[in-house]
Amino acid sequence: MTDISSSNALENPMEPGAQPRLLRILTILTVLGFAATLILGLFVAGTDIQQGEVQRIFYIHMPSFFGAFTAFGATVVGGILYLARRSETWDQIALAGVEVGLAFALINLLTGAVWARPIWNTWWTWDPRLTSAAIMCLTYAAYLMLRAGIEDPNRRRAFMSVYGIFAFVSVLITLFIIRIVPETIHPVIVGASPQNAQGGFEATSGVVLALVPSLLLWLTLMPITLIWHRVRLEIRLEALSLQKIRALNE
Amino acid sequence: MSGERPIIEVEALSKAYGLLPALRDVSFCVGRGECVRLLGANGSGKSTLLRALAGLSKPSSGRIRVGGWEMPKEAAQLRAQIGLVAHQPLLYENLSARENLHFFGVLYAINRAERERRSAELLRSVDLHKRAESLVRTFSRGMKQRLSLARAMLHQPDLLLLDEPYSGLDQKAGELLDELLLAARSQGQTIIMSTHQLERGAQFAERALILSRGRISFDGPGSASEISAAFRRAGDAPGL
Amino acid sequence: MKTSFAAAVLAIAGKDLRAELRSREVLMAMALFALLSVLVFSFALELDRAARGEAISGVLWVTLIFASILGFNRSMANEQDAGNFDALRLAPISRSAIFVGKLVGNCCFTLCVGLALLPLMTVLYGLNLLDGWVLLTTLLGVGGFSTIGTLLATMTAQTRAREALLPIALLPVALPFLLTAVRATKGVLGGEPQSEWQVWLQLLAGIGLIYFVLCMLLFEFVAEE
ipTM of this predicted complex? Predict the structure, then answer.
């Protein structure tokens, strides 16, 4: 979904300064949406009886993971389409997906740590889900390292498309780890929580009201808008280095 | 494929490594049985052109046909009729000379008896038959180069591509190579050979192609002095 | 004139094995590393006997995967150093034959190390690892991460910092094999009923199959230029 909407508008992305109208609309919607979901989460939703105000971090914590999911998904789609069509744009989308997804995944980890400090009484614990989320971040850090190590651009694009497809495994593991290693203390809010989960709370109508808009925003608007901006930046960087080489060749 | 049709047809071939152009708009044809010297300074695109002809690197644009097969669609058939001697020897260090030839013989679907015969014959003609059972890692640069040539000729390719075949060879080995190439020519094989030494191969290669900054700056038969003048002009052009 | 798939696979795997039997560079390094790793683990975990029994399957698999990385790196470096990979790509064989050939070779080396580790660990840790099911798990697990390891080693061998990049690139994507293999081994060794751990073996085989198909499809792009 991400890629279809952005590819149409990327057909003439080279005009400097001029943003496609759709992108401008998306940007405004994203900013407004983010403000609105923050208000919903911070002020409208009720305070959790057991956990207090800190529970509100959940309205960012969980959606940010799904934001990363969309962004890393864009990397997979971009990779497959690059290998099929050999158009640079798909590779740029894949790269943007990694960077945006990594940022979201870090937000996910940080907000989790802030929440765990009062609830689990520690910033970090070697819980299966936490570990797999950290490994997911490292996988995409590895993607960026590997990418920097390949000099020939065509080879780099092809290789990273392949790696981006396999890297998604780490996202799926994080999602399904509770089924593989059931002894996690990480709570599951939607669906059955594992037996030893600590710090769960009920998905009351107030929670759902604040969660659903935030989830939708992070799943769609946020990653799409950010990836689009990042792709435009990448295109400009490449145009710049092309000019540099031309200038050196004169 | 009739004898009429040129074995190599290259049309508007361009190849860029990222933003750096290595070949720009190169077009030429080579007829069957021709022997062409590819001349040019370092970095002029000789190796890139040979790799593209061998189907090892994809052109950025343009068309390549070898023996009527087109890149990259029919790359497998195209590659089957090419023998390549590259900068690197393309040999396994921990296998003996004979084992190397046998291995590549299997890859080229040469049957067992034929494989034995061809490799014994080739080892003798590159003067390595006494070292057939020695591991390649004990070989000198020149010996590897000769074995590499034997490997490239193993499947009797229609087209031999040689990238600086004389580098690392001493006087005697150089003469051996001359003989081998002459023999290959007389059997009707087409030879394209890159070199930066003007005198090399001049006695049997009637045609010279000079590459300069990724473009063909001279193409055709010519006297030694004409070619060397064109070569010098190309060499004076500022490099990339 | 096109060489049959099986002939090409056998030739490529055969020449890797032959060269390795002659020099034994890779196998020795892998075996020595595995031995050291097991000893270091057994030393580090000495204090707590209960924990040692628990940790044995983890020790086995972590050791195996690190040892295999040594092998993958060397095997692809052998192709890359003298430009041999070009020679393979030049031959009229399919790209997937190159992949399967290299995979079979890599798999053999790692399996050798794995098969040597099982009796060794049986002695060192006093737990019987010489069990048919543990062997099957070893086979499936080694086959699994050799598949993705061969593909990624082909990639990293063509980068600047190749030896350093492979573990970083491989470990996260080989994690499904590590997780399921550890679970299965633990279940077998812990004497749990078969119904409890069978699912891990099935999962291991299933993931292996998916990875194999993906690698076959994607190897072409890794070997193209």
Answer: 0.89
